[in-house]
Amino acid sequence: MSRYLSWLALSVAALTAVPAAGVSAWTLVASLVFSSSTVQTLAFAGSLAVVGLSLVGLTEHELSHGAEQSSDTRKSQLAAAA
CB within 10 Å: which end of the chain, N or C, has fewer? Predict the structure, then answer.
């Protein structure tokens, strides 16, 4: 189970890091192409996207640690019962 959770954590980390880097790169390109007022709007939208991706990563992290802790608790309860 632990192997699956580590793979899942890595895949979710990649699924959140790559789009965050893409949003950052897009903001840089947009600042060179569009007018100032448009860039401000796009930068704000990009920051909201990064916040959303951060919340996804944080949620995944908390859930994976909760699953690890629950499996450790289960093992210790089984050992105590034996």
Answer: C
